[in-house]
Amino acid sequence: MNIHEYQAKAVLREFGVPVPRGQAAFSVEEAIKAAKELDAPVVVVKAQIHAGGRGKAGGVKVVKSTEDVRKEAARLFGSVLVTHQTGPHGKQVNRLYIEEGSAIDREFYLSALVDRETSRIAFVVSTAGGMDIEEVARTHPEQIMTFSVDPATGIMPHHGRLVAQALGLRDELAKQAATVVTKLYAAFVAKDMSLLEINPLVVTKGKELVCLDAKIGFDDNALYRHPDIAALRDLSEEDDKEIEASKYDLNYVALDGAIGCMVNGAGLAMATMDIIRLYGEAPANFLDVGGSASKEKVAAAFKIITADPKVKGILVNIFGGIMKCDIIAEGVVAAVKEVGLPVPLVVRLEGTNVELGKEIIAKSNLNVTSADDLDDAAQKIVKAVKGN
Q1: What is the pLDDT of residue 322?
Q2: What spatial distance separates the first Cα and last Cα of the chain, rounded to whole Å?
Q3: How open is the CA angle 288-290-292, to the nearest 5 degrees?
């Protein structure tokens, strides 16, 4: 789960991380009120969307008067920002963050994330602050330094020294760097984060280290432990189908293709998406129903797929280990009888109770095409879609 910048800074502030003063605004009037209460000579008006690249898209403006705050807030509210992370459709701006301006001397990049290869929290540090880290990695990899933290010891003084050295910070600023890194690590662990990105981390002209921007992602599986974080979820930033899928604990991601996929297991789901592309079409979604799906859960997944107007065909690919093929078959039949079958459907079943599953589908009198294996299933659904 992702949250907005102003929410991320509020979380970090709880752990003593240095962030600028600011207030969220949900209307032009609230933006003006926030600027007056900040009473700063320079104010930054920031659009709040779940995407990077806001500045390049005109979503971050530095102003010096209340009238300018009014003008920029009026321009941004209801506008659509298109960045490299939003896709061509962009995201509508419904919230702003009015923040005290900072006199910037130097900009850096600092992030922490879960490194699955080492099973540790890894830090990424770069002197190229304020830039897309992907571009820096591609063009100037020598400007990036990474290290991981042993969970047995947690953050240690030498980690802070590593960061200070990588950023060229000395004396008092080096001490500040060590303190900031320690507090960021504490926040990361305490709140079960999956990503914490500070871009930029700045040194002000007053020689203070400040987190000027903050992006945080949380481990969805741990949200039950953090009702305060779960309450920060902004549903307007999420796809309606993904919201519906989350109600049934389905792993669903909307994509732009024409073939809806229902698969069990993330690896098999990715293989299914790949083979659809191999035969000349694109998946409309990633959907892993999981190993313990019920008939109701499968029916809900099928309804979510068919609700997508882009879907021109559906491929159900189930390898029954923990998941039983007859449960999938019952769910598909129940959903089709309720919502109809407006597009071609190809079903490939293999594994536990496969014969029973095939029998359930055969006796349902549905217009379903059976497939012997994944290759056969992919070819059949692509042919059916292209034939429409």
Answers
A1: 67
A2: 38
A3: 155
From the list 6, 72, 97, 109, the catalytic residue is 109
Q: What is the dihedral of CA 68, 73, 79, 81, to 10 degrees?
A: 80
Spatial distance between the Cα atoms of 45 and 62, rounded to a whole number of angstroms? 6
* Per-residue model confidence (pLDDT) at position 388: 55
Q: What would you report as the CA-atom Rg of the chain, rounded to the nearest whole angstrom?
A: 25
CA-to-CA dists, residue 255 to 49, 95, 258, 303, angstroms: 19, 26, 9, 16
Please tell me the distance from the alpha carbon of residue 371 to that of residue 282, in angstroms, as a whole number: 19
Preceding amide of 88 cis, omega within 30: no
Is there a catalytic annotation at residue 109?
yes
Which run of H or of E encompasses 241? helix 240-247
Phi, psi for residue 171 in degrees, rounded to 5: 55, -125
Indicate if 134 belongs to the active site.
no
**Counting beta carbons within 10 angstroms of the beta carbon of residue 200, is it exposed (0 to 12), middle (13 to 18) or buried (19 or more)?**
buried
Write the CB contacts of 176 (distance below 8 Å, at least 6 apart in sequence).
18, 169, 208, 209
| Secondary element (H or E) of residue 374 | helix 374-386
Q: Which amino acid is at 40?
A: A
Angle at the Cα of 22 from the Cα atoms of 21 and 25, rounded to 5 degrees:
170
**Cα(47)–Cα(54) distance, rounded to whole angstroms?**
7
Q: Give pTM, 2 decimals.
A: 0.78
Three-state SS across 247-304?
A: HCCCEEEECCCCEEEEECCHHHHHHHHHHHHHCCCCECEEEECCCCCCHHHHHHHHHH
| 269: β partners | none
From the list 5, 72, 99, 197, the catalytic residue is: 197
Strands 345-351 and 369-370: parallel
Question: Could you list the mean pLDDT of each consecutive 10-residue stretch along the chain, which spans 388 residues?
Answer: 95 97 96 95 94 88 94 95 84 94 94 92 90 81 91 94 94 95 97 95 95 94 94 84 81 90 88 94 90 73 87 88 78 80 87 85 83 90 85
- The SS3 call for residue 316 is strand
pLDDT value at position 293? 61
